[in-house]
Amino acid sequence: MSTILRLIWFDLKQELNPPIWIIMEWVVFGIQLAVYGALISRLVTSMADYLQFYAVGFVIMMTFEIGSHTGRHFVEHAHEGRLPYLLSLPIPRWKLFLTVALQGGVELALMLTVPLSVTLSIIGNLTAISALSAVATLFWLGFGVSGLMLGLSFIAFRSADLYTAIVTALSTLIIRFSTVLYPMIFLPASYAGAAAFSPLTYGSDLVRFFLGFDPSMLVNPQIAIAVLTALAVSTLGLSAMLMQRIVEGVKSG
Amino acid sequence: MHPIETEKLTKLYGKTKALRELDFTLDEGEIMVLLGPNGSGKTTLLLILSTVLKPTSGKASVMGFDVINQSTKVRQVLGISFQDARGFWRHKPIEILRFHATICGVPRDRRERLIEEILKDLELWDARGKLFMHLSGGQAKRLEVAKLLVQRPKLAIFDEPSSQVDLRGKRIIWDHICKLREDGSTVLVATNEVREAEYLADRITILDEGVKVACNTLQSLKDSIAGGDIVELEFEAKDNKDMAEALGRLEGTFRVTKEEENHLRAYVSMAEEWVPKMANICYQKGVKVVSVRVTEPSLDDVFLHFTGRALGAASS
After folding, report:
1. pTM, full prediction
2. Domain stops at, among B196, B222, B248
3. Which one, A87, A138, A189, B256, has least CB within 10 Å?
């Protein structure tokens, strides 16, 4: 365990020295919520307090964005020469992949600390269990997205441009065709059908369920838990297998 | 058991064959130099041995551990210094060495002393607090080598350890590699620099297009070139008509040419055995020799002999 912690800390130290990216994420969240969130919630009259809904949605978008960076980081490490170095260290492969996943989790935690605290304080009136369940859902979603992006990163070994194009297109579709920014009951039938295929639909609705939003406008929480679990387990398992095959079969540097 | 043993080791990158059924062994306690131009398969072999890459077919073992099925054990007994020192842009040299030494299990009581000693020896002590991205190419390369010198593994693998390093730095690195061997490590060095190979090698393996074309000590490789040694003879008297003929009949003579009236050039195999025989003939014939100059073939000549191409031309 100490090896895993040491590996995580060695990389994380860079992010925190100085923690400019993390602070920037917090600033972006603050501006987005204070300006866009506040104004759009005045326009939206069909929902009691859209700002709360929007704040959760923006935290979900951040989770997706941070999770999707994991795949890109992995490939960058391969091209920069850090990955061959890590692969040559006397560490079992499973520990190395666990480190990659946990590192993504820790980065997610650091980036979301302030946005999530602000969101929880806006919603207010929460129990510790509901807040912790929401946090756990975000991590579970983060792992699923990281796994998905790690699985996709094999494309980046062939073409970084193609990978960027695919991830950009995918994130556009996954976020827009989901319940991140608007509830399922508001969506036209064709959009709702597409949203059923977006993992963010289940992530955002489950978080909202735990935070006390009206369950009638959310997807079934049991189905959401099942989908998110299936996503995290399958994509992380698949990506670990793919990575081992791809990384050790690709010429480094 | 050999520290390294490969059997029909093959690696394909798409349709490109980087290694072709390579059989290769390394003896304990030696420095083996892999010599070959860029693209000859040296780095691929090193990456397979260090379990960074998987072979397409064939077998490879390190200290008796299979590189595919016992990869963690392989990594516990070897260390590799990569060709390109990259990837830790925002870390400092001293942090990188501390991290590496800790992960590789260098005991805490020796760690700091070793790191300081190596950093000073490699003239990196003053740069220990700089960010990696601010190091020069030579400093970054020396840091890459320093990782292995701090780790002191049973099997040390260096990929072009002194490329980008100035002459003085090269000498320091080479001496440290020799010291590593004296301290009990077995060493494998890949290079395309003739001077590096000549300085370090106990044995040399020549790789070309993924194939092992020769493997022996430097001297044996040079001796294996028929007529590769050149002996220049200068006689006191100008009239030495029958000397060329007599020397031509000596065992090991490839050919004899007359350069001037009192100057012969003999192309021979193993000059160290040929010269005493030549001296006997001169003594018997009463011919006085003014000077003898022996020129051995260079490693470039050896490479040319075995591959049909000059090393420099092959690299480019």
Report:
1. 0.82
2. B222
3. A189
